[in-house]
Amino acid sequence: MSQLKNIQDENVPVWLPRLAMHGGPRFLQIADALQAAVVAGSLKPGERLPTQRQLAAQLAVDLTTVTRAYDEARRRNLLEGRGARGTYVAAPKVALNAILDLSMNTPPPPDGVDFDDMLKQGLSQVLMSADNEQLMTYHLAGGGESDRKAGAKWLEPMFGHVDTQQLVVCPGAQAAIAALILALTEPGDVILAEAMTYPGLLAAATQFGRRIIAVETDQHGMLPEMLEQACRQHKPGLVYLNPTLQNPTAITMPEQRRKELASIAQRCNVRIIEDDPYWLLADAPPPPIARFAPEQVYYISTLSKCLTPGLRVAFVLIRDPQERERFLVALRSFALMGAPLTAALATQWILDGSAKGLMEVVRKEARLRHSMARDILAGKYNGSGDGLHVWLALPAYWDSAQFVRAAESEGVTVMPAEAFATGSESVNAIRISLGSIKDRGRLRAALQRLSHLLAQQPWSFSTAVV
């Protein structure tokens, strides 16, 4: 296909493509052509574009298509409106002190998905099928029947059939963790966790006056014999585990280790929070620990790491009805309800299959980014090839706090091991999140800066004195 429209009419802009039937949404084809022309220099800053009606007539498309194309081009900082004078090619925007953020574990942008359109369609379906007054009023925490039905479908890959009465819908996994701590422990109680663990657990435990004690690990995660010893010594109120693509170490605990830990939980009568946000992103992960000790384990799965954090929806599997009610009482003490509109959108997407499609694209993008990290951090990369992050051990001549400061001076943010530490054990490593930078080119630049730093001695980054 020719890149440029065959010009029969000199009034038709030369930068426009020949609109292809199978070339994706037409508004994106127009926006992509406009961007290519700006990059090539055939459209220059300050140049005036046709009005939307003119362009729609020239291309024989409806006005809405051109409006969406111009909106998309403005979102990409390609165009600017000047009121009655019209629409012009924007001058390049200079990002001063732009930070390349590799510190936040968020899903990468789904390449090839028109997320704006997906959002509009999903919300349109919600508003057509729901009682709009109900979307704008109070709801009891825990979710309605349709929300729990969506939760059961979301958990099917992990558990098969799930009884919707055993599910609770929460405004995010962090709220679920906090409510479990409040419901199942008392101030001063011990929570056992791995030496490197999710900072949200540390924050909640500290806020509520609970003590985190680290249990020794190996390359497969928490050691069973050390868990049993800690259970007998400390009589913990809870054990916290993140067994799949663990945050931050990216370890996926093998099935046999999961069975051993479940057996110890049953033998010692200790309850486990299984926080499992990355299971659906992993390549052939083992069954959840909750499959092996269903009465001992509270299972949490969130949409934030597989779809988007903005939905603020997590599902918690709690089998015992009395403990489920205690959990709801604790949850209502600080989160009366999740936002009904976003919960309804999550339910709509799960039940109509949109969530599964979006997650597949996120998984594919995440794996592409791991491949990029493996190439750039050759010899240093320590990832599984999927998930959202890499755990990178630093060479002995760097310590993690020092390296983080040096990276910041190069415009890149990463997370040091200290942010995840449950005890005094010193680990010289950083976590690199691969999804938080939208553009792959900028991600590549950030990883290259880190690779350059890793190859150099710290003394070469001393601060100048003025």
Q: With helices defined by DSSP (H or I, 4 residues minimum), what is the helix count?
A: 15
| Strand order, sheet with most strands | 4-12-11-10-9-5-6
- What portion of the residues fall into strands of 2 or more residues? 5-15%
State the CATH superfamily name of the largest domain: Type I PLP-dependent aspartate aminotransferase-like (Major domain)
Distance between the termini: 59 Å
CATH class category of the largest domain = Alpha Beta
Q: How would you characterize this protein structure?
A:
- The chain has 466 residues and is α/β, with parallel strands linked by helices.
- The chain has three domains: 94 residues, Arc Repressor Mutant, subunit A (Orthogonal Bundle), CATH 1.10.10.10; 119 residues, Alpha-Beta Complex (Aspartate Aminotransferase, domain 1); 240 residues, Type I PLP-dependent aspartate aminotransferase-like (Major domain) (Aspartate Aminotransferase, domain 2, 3-Layer(aba) Sandwich), CATH 3.40.640.10.
- It contains 15 helices and 16 strands.
- The chain has a seven-stranded mixed sheet with strand order 4-12-11-10-9-5-6, with helices on both faces. The protein has a three-stranded antiparallel sheet with strand order 13-16-15, with helices on one face.
- A hairpin with a 5-residue loop joins strand 1 and strand 2.
- The longest helix is centred in the last third of the chain and has 23 residues.
- The protein is globular and about 75 Å long.
- The N terminus is likely disordered.
- GO terms for molecular function: DNA binding; DNA-binding transcription factor activity; pyridoxal phosphate binding.
- It comes from Undibacterium pigrum.
